[in-house]
Amino acid sequence: MSAEPDSASVQNITAFFAELNRIYSTDRILTNKAQLAPYESDGLTCFRARPCGVVLPENQQEVIDTVRLCHRFAMPFVARGSGTSLSGGAVPIENGLVIAMNRLNKILDYDAEQRTVVVEPGVINLKVSQHVAGDQLYYAPDPSSGPVCTIGGNVAFNSGGAHCLKYGMTSNHVLGIKAVLPDGEIVELGGDSLESVGQDLTGMFIGSEGLFGVALEVTLRLLPKPEKYYTLQAAYDSLEKAGNAVAMVVASGLLPGAMEIMDRLSMDAADAAIGAGYPQDAAAVLIVELEGTTDEVEAEMPLLHSVIEESGAYIVEAAKDDAHRTKIWTGRKSAFSAVGRLSPDFIVQDGVVPRTRLAEALAEIERLSGKYGIRVANVFHAGDGNLHPLVMFDGREEGALHKAEELSGEIIRLCIRLGGSITGEHGVGLEKRMYLGEMYGEDDIEFMHRLQHAVDPLELANRGKKLPVATAPALLTRGAHPLEKQGVIFRD
After folding, report:
1. What is the pLDDT of residues 293-349, one digit of tens each?
2. Under CATH, which number does the domain 228-321 receive?
3. Could you say which of 3.30.465.10, 3.40.50.12280, 3.40.190.10, 3.30.300.30 is the CATH number of the domain covering 107-224?
4. Please, what's the b/e burial string for 379-403 (b: 16 or more CB within 10 A of its CB; e: otherwise)?
5. What are phi and psi of 112, to 5 degrees?
6. Is-above-0.85 flag for pTM?
């Protein structure tokens, strides 16, 4: 349940909203419960909080004025895009403000020759590639939420996607950022040059999960579209064999554009959702995609087939045409949402292990799944060891969420123990901040806090996220959502 503000807070909020009315028309300030309900959580719906309001800016100046007002009133705020975060990173601050950035969705500049584009933070990821497709260019980071997630959110969490093995994360494709800091100062980090010198302040901002302010403009690097794609899927009788195959492909010297693994549960979900057509008797399928010039891809194809056959695959099938390739990838990218067909609730984890220890990690996750009696679907970016175990539960059952969280915690600690990371692309958010101290030493954590306080001493920007805190807001709500209790929404 949301905490009620005390009388002093009420007075402050009343004065704050009086000033907000000078910036926004009434229809762009949301304050009633029904209006606020969609903003209570992000993609990790087990974390919820109710803001005191949501504002809908339509230009950069309104964002700047809002941030400056928040600083003046010491009002904590969260800048939010489409709310696709899977770590609780876009959950509002209790009785704080949400700045919804979706209406800042303009492409401001595009230089095909220099292969750069300048966008506002509310631009949808996929829209960038669509805008530049006529010049045979595209924007490489391709998270599964690409059709709906925003560039601002991608910057905040340093998003990746299926093709990050070859092309890297968001940080590898952002050249410059114009941002408003939590105190209202306007800064320009980086620029439009492919060459950078001096301190990498752009890199510091990317992946900061909103702790350093709000991006207003982002300059992106574009890539030429590959001449040829060659997409292959291989079926295995065990998840461990599929994991070992990944290390074998990389050890061969090949650098595919993407390597993805789906287990039986995730395949079943994708088949039920879109009829993806994955092998019905396989324990796991490995999707490998070569891309580049025609000569390059055709030269690599025989080696790829040789390695995959050696890895123990019992079905090896190449995409017959573009339509078949699209079907394979649509199935993979729909897997997260499709798992909703198998379970009313699930936690999407995001740990990383070294490629050489993938098989070991997958075997241990399978053991942990049996230990807890909880189904875990595995679908992930195998090429860079970025695991996405989907821990399934039913939040209506007493203690089910707590048990699922315990299993998720064991998976996170497994990644640390194997020499990996607690996050690959989903960020730390609320969900994993408690594990940060298990991955980093006290000096590292202290430095992170010092850096945050140097930029935002009042901790107004996305307070309570990413870094461990002694007293965190009570955001975890167990049981039915308030709107379920009211009969407004249903999960049956």
Report:
1. 999 999 999 999 999 999 999 999 999 999 999 999 999 988 888 998 999 999 999
2. 3.30.70.3450
3. 3.30.465.10
4. bbbbbbbbbbbbbbbebeeeebbee
5. -65, -35
6. yes
